[in-house]
Design a protein that fits this description.
single chain; alpha+beta; seven-stranded mixed β-sheet; 28 helices; 30 strands; 35% helix; globular; disordered N terminus
Amino acid sequence: MVEGRTDAAIPAIRHPAASRTRLDRSGIPEFLELSRVTTPASTSVADTVENATATPEKEQPYAALGLKPDEYDRIREILGRRPTSGELAMYSVMWSEHCSYKSSKIYLRKFGEKVSDEMKERLMVGMGQNAGVVDIGEGWAVTFKVESHNHPSYIEPFQGAATGVGGIVRDIISMGARPVAVMDQLRFGAIDNPDTARVVHGVVSGISFYGNCLGLPNIGGETVFDAVYQGNPLVNALAVGVLRHEDLKLANATGAGNKVVLFGARTGGDGIGGASILASDTFADGGPTKRPAVQVGDPFAEKVLIECCLELYRDELVEAIQDLGAAGISCATSELAANGGSGMRVDLENVLLRDPTLTPEEILMSESQERMMAIVAPEKLDAFLAVVGKWDVETSVLGEVTGDGRLQIFWHGEEIVNVDPSTVAVDGPVYERPVAYPTWIDALREDSASALPRPNDAETLRDQFTKLVASPNLADTSWVTNQYDYYVMGNTALSFPDDAGMIRVDEHSGLGFAIATDCNGRFCQLDPYQGAKLALAEAYRNVAVTGAVPTAVTDCLNFGSPENPEVMWQFSQAVDGLSDGCLELGVPVTGGNVSFYNQTGDQPIFPTPVVGVLGIIDDVARRIPSGWQDAGENIYLLGVTSTELSGSQWAGTIHGHLGGRPPAVDLAQEKKLAELLHAAGQQSLVSSAHDLSSGGLAQTLAEAVMRFGVGARVWLNEIQERDGVDAATALFSESTGRVIVSVPREDDVKFRGLCEGRGYPVLRIGVTDPAADGDEPALEVQGLFTVPLAELRDLSTSTLPDAFGPIVTEHTA
């Protein structure tokens, strides 16, 4: 049924199935109703360009929209007049911290400056587009990205987390790819704080609801509890898609006369001001005081949108495409026009609305979900409309691409926006914020964990080991992960609780990819430069232990307020560490996200630069799991153990301590270790591999035993003698560059030869152990203690259910 017309030939199409629940105006800040006047009709009277020119003295609520006085003055300078209400709305969202990266741009440039030829080999699309794209061979490519949805997930945990998943998936769709997997990286407050359960239940339910409804497997992530995140949890979402090389799409509007088409869900009042007001400011001490509406998601609409977009790509019916996420139509129109070096004319009244009372400014700022904008050649428009009609997706033609380099937006024939799109989307403010070395950090670093008492008696070591296994950040996370579908689509090769997720891309060759995300905020608080390198090294190692070759990086940089000079020092150090580390490892940063203002009052979160590493595996049949499955195999420790307990889980859990310097990291050794593991996987010499990180050797052994229920008998004396450490350090140190592997006895000589030939330290530290007749499997640390498998599992699996309720006994796969 025809709802409206942009001209005599191009209708706006309405499909009944997309006319869903109408949202009321609750949550829309009053200061956004900039042009509403009382009229008999529902149409608002707009603040036009002509009116703005004639009324230069009119006061405008720029501060309430998140703009600083000098930013407002700069907008007036750019335009040569005051902005219209619509222009002010656009600049306010696009110049926000969340969209413009105005405090981080000068640092993020380092990712583009520190690049080697090795890093360019497989990079098809880097930073600047919706997501990075990597060539994985055989004509296949993978696109992946991680982004934050932190503040919405504190205010409204379910919808905040759900729409975080939806938004990152649309970034993947916009590259021309089919989404194939999601992951999440979660940081919550103290597990026993009364408010933590509210956030945990909402966030996990939102992620599982949206991802499961889309039919996408959730193949990995992180769950961390720490009081520092109490008033500002972190909800980072990652999505991955696959595509053929020839199907790649970029968000560039070119070709004068091409049509600008908005399709998907209708535009409502949800999410208005999310980028400029909610995401780009801190919470007050008493909790969130600025509460614009959080976006509301509909995964079933997005599932249809995915299939619709893939058919449009298949039939080559779009020239470019852009998802509507943060800043909505303001972002899509200005970025498409700016990226294409073109102009655009849009008739805003053709936008199909859930709420007909929305003003033009609200329409421009709305962050309603499940919407896409396409650039379509006129001769393909009928075919385009036929496809969206087949999928019952509402569509409206808003305007066309022009060649004049201006973005012009009209409201019922009156011009309400006339700007150079680059000034909105590209040339926003760039700040060199004050940077100050933290006044507190030297004292923190001097308080080393080396001064903490380390036991040497068996009883105390066993007690500390069991406390660590049951601690919130090392305990089993099935309470979370069993709410996700791991295996939908049938291509999951590895998932929880393995070190990385793995997806098969090609059924015939077995080609696939592995992906892992990591960050230890405690290490970053002690040393953000080293902490970022450690996050990179751990994610790199977690991919390597699966047998994949680490290839590319995405990141989500979560920090406190950029207006705090000490936070900016942390940020600059972290970017230096990550960019230096990527250069040394030869893996490019393909894109990511910066999330500032993560603090309540004056208390910022720990620096939390989440790093995702993607690796390529030529045949997923050669994947390596994280636990052993057969008795009688030899257990080897690769790498050297040092007395590195500062920032460790042992220091935090047993002693309530944070101080000292984090572990050293040798990225050349990490690269050598990854190459060794890949060679071992190619020759099928190892039956399992598990990295050592949080909780050290003790936690890794416990997880390997619990993975498939096969016990182990290990000894520490050779580690202690070779590395000069005591038993507690051997068990709990978090030294880097270490992995345990299990090796079938028939491959023992070959494996030792491989390690010796590559010059990597190796020690045989145990054997996988069958249970004696009538006994159950156990982890035995010879001469110290034994913990039966049943006790291990009870310790590990009870912590989260005790805090949040019964576990889902059968996950949704």
